[in-house]
Amino acid sequence: xxxxxxxxxxxxxxxxxxxxxxxxxxxxxxxxxxxxxxxxxxxxxxxxxxxxxxxxxxxxxxxxxxxxxxxxxxxxxxxxxxxxxxxxxxxxxxxxxxxxxxxxxxxxxxxxxxxxxxxxxxxxxxxxxxxxxxxxxxxxxxxxxxxxxxxxxxxxxxxxxxxxxxxxxxxxxxxxxxxxxxxxxxxxxxxxxxxxxxxxxxxxxxxxxxxxxxxxxxxxxxxxxxxxxxxxxxxxxxxxxxxxxxxxxxxxxxxxxxxxxxxxxxxxxxxxxxxxxxxxxxxx
Amino acid sequence: xxxxxxxxxxxxxxxxxxxxxxxxxxxxxxxxxxxxxxxxxxxxxxxxxxxxxxxxxxxxxxxxxxxxxxxxxxxxxxxxxxxxxxxxxxxxxxxxxxxxxxxxxxxxxxxxxxxxxxxxxxxxxxxxxxxxxxxxxxxxxxxxxxxxxxxxxxxxxxxxxxxxxxxxxxxxxxxxxxxxxxxxxxxxxxxxxxxxxxxxxxxxxxxxxxxxxxxxxxxxxxxxxxxxxxxxxxxxxxxxxxxxxxxxxxxxxxxxxxxxxxxxxxxxxxxxxxxxxxxxxxxxxxxxxxxxxxxxxxxxxxxxxxxxxxxxxxxxxxxxxxxxxxxxxxxxxxxxxxxxxxxxxxxxxxxxxx
Lengths: 284, 354
Hints:
Chain A is an all-alpha fold and about 280 residues long.
């Protein structure tokens, strides 16, 4: 009981971060559990086009009289899955290549850094726009892989720098003197000390993946259909929803959903920083 | 050292000495690395672009059938008349041909706008991207540095907290969503800006000239993209400058400057400002590349005729030479920005001057 209370106090210590955590939980629940409770409204109702929010239509109706709220609930899953997968892929590549680069040194180091340099030089978004053409209809995994494989270089450099500095610390030297082996030193000494950095950068990688994927879907470069915040945005745009006063809710609902989710993620990193770094806490 | 070495090894060392001299010269090494990177990007994009599903002819045939109701045969004849490109020659031959042309400064001609040299199209679109992005960066960088310093001097005040919150909110929201909100609220709902009139990079019939009317016109048309870029990038500068200023204020030379009784204005500008803004210049280079690359979304939203729009239309029509030209230009922009940042850094910080 005491430990539970302490955990709670730790979580609520940073208020902005805690709100971020609640936001993230809310969106995850809405995207994965919500669809079981809110049925998707697919029936065209000509007499109910662009209705304002009401008790039946919480966020109003779209250009065909369908409920916007149900589309928002059903449209989150793809976005979240792609973001999470892309984040995991790019962070894993960065951690592996960064550590390898720092520990192996020499030619391997030079090669990895040169590769990172080149990938950083290629204009990211235009390259994604071209590669998006390879994504087949509604293939969430492939999109995540493409996003993840292109966004590792910056973090790789940072991880390399961290490992280089951690490697010289006393506790690593002690472990080396005790002959605990490379595997132990990497997994038990160096990696735990980078965990907070890695976790926070995973979140940043997720926000970058959301930026890119929604942007690509919005421009119509990824052949996605169905219910996805990016598709909603794209449809609202092509149907000219920005130009009518009544269609405000149609275009603003996906905008708000994406923006709020991004904000929640960014605020959540502040909480992570404090949980992982006890030196930032003043009292718990 | 060389006295111990056997005599045979001295000959190969001499032949490669000019290579070593290039290697030792920092500037030359950077230029060589830059050229190498440009070549890699050209090669990669050449093949990636051609790997895309649907080739230019099919894209055109589909467009004719979808938009103008052509039958497949009609559309195919029409396409065959428009394109006299040989997509059947081997990819390698095409690549060698492209590189040879490129060395003569020839970027090829557009498939779609038949016969228009790619370089002409880029010359038409690129200035607008550079103009809007350049002005935005200038505004957000200077304003961000100023506000960041104010926040550092008045830290923990109401102003600091408000600006910090706004900065984190605006840098967390994707820039195209901010652009959309500007369009929806300022343009449609509250009718502050006549957005349909502000489309394009200048008013129809406007002649580029160094006149007040022209300058006013291009700023008017670029106003909303610039506002979007500034709003979404200024937060990063503010927060970075704030933390940099706070750490600079703790330096010994600031205490010494104060002890010497230097006027406060001189301390703020020459001592704190100059030193605290240094680390931001390297970030500036990275952000130039990012913004130019991401301009496609903003230019699409505001119908602004920049290089991003050109890229999008060339992707949709599979206009390979144009796509590659745009890639090349953006890559060169990124590399030049890096050079510029190094140069500015060296100029601002005499400690690292080479």
